[in-house]
Specification:
The radius of gyration is 26 Å and the shape is elongated. The chain has a domain at 10-45 and 93-195: Up-down Bundle (Butyryl-CoA Dehydrogenase, subunit A, domain 3). It is an alpha+beta fold. Helices cover 48% and strands 23% of the residues. Its main location: other.
Length: 206
């Protein structure tokens, strides 16, 4: 005679946990992007060397224009052969203030959303907080998208030299940060009304 056995089955649906992991990766990407100094770098084989980060731009070699009153004086390259001349990234480049703001503000938003997401994950009755975190992350992702579009467009219009150059890791990681926080936003916004851990019972004949 068959005997009926009731088996408890549980499974995990960790969408929100994956969202938090993506958001943490996005925060790390923000930190790296803001810290790296190679948003733009020139060819190392060129006589004129140049690099630009989110906060400063530096050059070495070539002719350097020095402002004296209203007159620009050009100094020979050999006087600056081993010296890097650095200025703020926003000097003669007002668009960099916008780019900086559109990177720093989303970074702060990402940290805030991470805290909100952790609270919602630990206290399941506060799952509605996921919606708040998701919405502000979408706003943050849009701001970063604007930053990474504005930066190359304006830089090319105000190109400070004629030399081969490329966009470096700092700029690329800013794109990665945007992708991470956008993914986290989507994961926070879907299936908010469902639990992360599911339980059910199944009857088996043995």
């Amino acid at each position: 005679m068959a005997k009926e056995v009731i088996v408890d089955i549980s499974w995990l649906r960790p969408l929100k946990l994956i969202g938090l992991a993506n958001l943490l990766c996005g925060i790390i990407a923000f930190i790296l992007s803001m810290a790296l100094e190679d948003w733009v770098i020139s060819d190392e084989h060129e006589e004129f060397k140049y690099y630009m980060s989110l906060w400063k731009k530096c050059q070495k070699g070539g002719d350097n224009d020095v402002q004296t009153g209203d007159v620009a004086v050009t100094t020979p390259a050999d006087q600056h052969e081993d010296t890097w001349t650095c200025t703020g990234a926003t000097e003669n480049a007002g668009y960099m203030s916008v780019v900086q703001a559109f990177i720093v503000i989303p970074f702060i938003i990402a940290i805030l959303a991470f805290v909100i997401g952790c609270i919602a994950y630990c206290k399941r009755e506060w799952r509605r907080l996921y919606r708040i975190a998701g919405i502000i992350l979408i706003v943050a992702a849009v701001l970063v998208l604007l930053a990474v579009i504005i930066f190359p467009c304006m830089f090319l219009q105000e190109l400070p030299f004629y030399a081969f150059f490329w966009f470096g890791w700092g700029y690329g990681i800013a794109w990665a940060a945007m992708c991470f926080i956008l993914t986290a936003a989507v994961l926070f916004l879907i299936s908010q009304d469902k639990k992360e851990i599911y339980h059910t019972q199944k009857t088996m004949n043995i």
